[in-house]
Amino acid sequence: MSQINRRLLHKDAPIGVFDSGVGGLTVAREIMRQIPNEKIIYFGDTARVPYGSKSRETVTRFSEQIVRFLRTFQVKTIVVACNTASAYALDVLEKDIDIPIIGVIKPGAKVAVEVTKNGRIGVIATDATIGSQMYHKYIKELNENVTIYGKACPLFVPLIEEGLLEDPVTDEIARRYLAELIDIDIDTLILGCTHYPLIRSALGRIIGEKVTLVNPAYETARELKGMLKDLDLLNDEKPGLGSNLYQFYVSDKAEKFVRFANSIIKYGILSAKTINIEEY
Amino acid sequence: MSQINRRLLHKDAPIGVFDSGVGGLTVAREIMRQIPNEKIIYFGDTARVPYGSKSRETVTRFSEQIVRFLRTFQVKTIVVACNTASAYALDVLEKDIDIPIIGVIKPGAKVAVEVTKNGRIGVIATDATIGSQMYHKYIKELNENVTIYGKACPLFVPLIEEGLLEDPVTDEIARRYLAELIDIDIDTLILGCTHYPLIRSALGRIIGEKVTLVNPAYETARELKGMLKDLDLLNDEKPGLGSNLYQFYVSDKAEKFVRFANSIIKYGILSAKTINIEEY
Fold this sequence. Notes:
The structure is a homodimer. In chain A, 43% of the residues lie in helices and 15% in strands. Chain A is of the alpha/beta class. The longest helix of chain A is centred in the first third of the chain and has 16 residues, at 56-71. Chain A binds chain B through residues 46-48, 53-55, 57-58, 61, 154-155, 158-159, 161-162, 168-169, 172-173, 251-253, 276, 278, and chain B through 46-48, 53-55, 57-58, 61, 154-155, 158-159, 161-162, 168-169, 172-173, 251-253, 276, 278.
């Protein structure tokens, strides 16, 4: 990371959070729960979703545009609430930025290493995240004796976006994706895509109760809280009424986003604004 | 359409063909079969695929960028080989262009009206194409006594991209999507998304042999041939060796595109070039 200029950052500035679409709302939800005084500017790249099947170069270019957009709000920190963007772009984003920026992969890797007893961890994620081997890298840095098994699950996001959260088809696809992870006796499974907590119960039923499911969203919000505390950047006071605590921006289909957001977050999201992200 | 300046167009100029990704290759394949002397410049927008879940404004902006890119090759005509882009953007594209441009919806509508006997036509397509009601509009213009039933099938594209062309899961999803079309006794089914011919056999098995499947790709190539003939723009001579008969461009993941393309088109596609479409 570039040198952070703490003096330019304000406690009451908002936190920028972004994802390829709606999945990152599971991370935003955890931030709202754990540090309720914080303002959030959320961006979902709904015009170019999904990221998980695209290349490092493309995902990095998209992420750089979004960071430029979020910085127009003088955010005090940015959370990359998308596993694919964290896997492909975080290293590059960190180099060019003078505010703290965190992804979801390192926190998820950390809790998985703490949780495993038999040293066999499974990761399910998009093609891109699995291909990047970033969970592998972070886990090995923490404990080189752990074995990691990655499995790309490209159909989960479309099935979730179609609303088939409890459905025999989703169960059948999950049985196929998880079969080899069951065979090799993992005891910990990282939900390495921000959509996957939405089918947590189906995944738990199929993988079996002996396997602990790790949701990086919770751990990411915890790490964010700790980092803001260390930097003396936690907002001390609850923002007053009318202070626009949470603002949502998307690159397409604001109405559909709001409908989905309200099914995930129970704060009564009234609106999202559409912007042309290609201009940033 | 703006006035076409025929004198500026050359018989041996290439034809521009575009799609959100690989689906339009089923249209390119038909053009290659029916008018084998023609050069083709194909563009697949693999960085921003899919289009079928996105808005009219976004799909139109993307399509305008692609038309600007294709025109850098002095194409003599453009084929919008994507149902969603044809539904949302063709009207706007036609207004601003002085070369002929055709989509896939009008040709598909035409053949469906010719084929139906009981006057009950089903259309399966993306959310966007169904929502646009463009098949409905064109069919009613041809025969107002025909009844059209549209059904959005958002999971077909991800299932096809995952390679589940012959699979119980695809069959189960198809049974759900097609159930109401079977109930209302259609005799003709338009495959209103360029991906769908790839699961033609599963669709045929489920909808039953009494229903005729219409693939707009074939009819689009036929209409293109007729239009070029009328304008005296058909290429009289087979281009020689080394003339780059078919060129492929994408906005991301050229290698994956080439693999998929070679499974659809039997001409030995060797390479595709990646460009940044946002610059156009």
